[in-house]
Design brief:
By secondary structure, this protein is mainly alpha-helical. The chain has two domains: about 220 residues, Alpha-lytic protease prodomain-like; about 80 residues, Cation efflux protein, cytoplasmic domain (Alpha-Beta Plaits), CATH 3.30.70. About 70% of the residues lie in helices and about 10% in strands. The chain is built from nine helices and three strands. A three-stranded mixed beta sheet has the order 1-2-3, with helices on one face. α1 packs parallel to α5, α4 packs antiparallel against α7 and α5 runs antiparallel to α6. The protein is elongated and about 90 Å long. The protein starts with a helix and ends with a strand.
Length: about 300
């Protein structure tokens, strides 16, 4: 991935970054698959357990990216009769599937790493070839670039799945650094146990990350509330609209890439139904202008009695 693409997304507005999103998903899929196959091949010919574990990380990211691409495609569909509130939760379903896959992968990696350490102290292992070191360096650069790009798109669009993929690639870059150090230590320093030890550390880190992701996905599936500062901002915006006497209730929840807001405002009891409708529309448009087009606002009008 080029530096130009990353900088373009960093300096763009939301519309330009939406264009980046269409490419970001498939870019992550192809890049992670290529990294997984590359590191698996190098791990096989070099005898490095650590880089084989690193290949598992990238293969996990490939599956995660593929699920996200499917999730984004479905969540972007407009509301219909069967789904009147849209398809926003598909992203959290994707995140849930990713986390379950991570947990299963981590268990296998953990068992494999413990066995590797045991074999090292019983004369059953040898130092990996130096080619594993150079493969790890290539992985570091590629993963950092990919994490930067996906993080940009995820931040702009507030996509939980895209941000999760960015975190995956960032953790993979750190993992690859550890692999490079382990290979040098085993090859040049005679500390053969470092190779499976790094694989064990990878498993522990991956388990913590997968549990955190599982928790985030469950929050999304059960309509977790947005940050209190966002609620305060919505209330402040509504109060600035002419005709709004009071904001009596604001409830907001995250829904995929967007926010769903239910609010109750009070207007002068002497105003007509048409005037109240216009005020409600102004409130809705003002909030959407501030928070983005992915924001859905439901406004309930009540008479204000001094």
């Amino acid at each position: 991935m080029s530096r130009t693409t990353v900088n373009k997304c960093n300096n763009s507005n939301l519309e330009e970054c939406v264009t980046c999103e269409k490419k970001a998903g498939w870019t992550a899929v192809y890049a992670n698959l290529a990294l997984a196959l590359f590191k698996a091949f190098i791990g096989y010919i070099s005898g490095s357990k650590a880089i084989l574990g690193d290949a598992l990380f990238s293969f996990k990211d490939f599956i995660a990216s593929l699920v996200v691409v499917i999730g984004i495609k479905v969540s972007g569909k407009p509301a219909d009769e069967q789904h009147p509130y849209g398809h926003g939760k598909v992203e959290f379903v994707a995140l849930f599937l990713i986390s379950i896959g991570l947990i299963v992968s981590t268990i296998f990696l953990f068992i494999h790493s413990v066995k590797g350490i045991w074999y090292c102290f019983h004369g059953g292992s040898s130092a990996p070839r130096l080619i594993a070191f150079w493969a790890a360096i290539i992985s570091v650069v590629a993963n950092f670039k990919l994490a930067q790009f996906l993080g940009c798109v995820g931040d702009k669009l507030k996509s939980p799945s895209m941000l999760a993929n960015a975190r995956h690639n960032h953790s993979d870059a750190i993992s690859s650094i550890m692999v490079a150090v382990a290979v040098l230590g085993a090859r040049l320093g005679g500390m053969v146990f470092l190779d499976p030890l790094v694989a064990l550390i990878e498993a522990v880190c991956l388990m913590g990350m997968s549990i955190e992701m599982l928790n985030d996905s469950l929050k999304g599936l059960f309509d977790f509330a947005v940050h209190p500062e966002t609620v305060d901002r919505v209330e402040s915006i509504a109060k600035l609209v002419p005709g709004v006497r009071k904001v009596s209730r604001v409830v907001a929840r995250q829904l995929g890439q967007g926010v769903w807001i239910d609010m109750t405002i009070k207007i002068d009891h002497a105003q007509s139904h048409q005037e109240g409708y216009i005020i409600g529309q102004h409130v809705k448009e003002s909030i959407q202008a501030a928070l983005g087009d992915n924001t859905s606002v439901n406004v309930i009008l009540e008479p204000y009695m001094p």
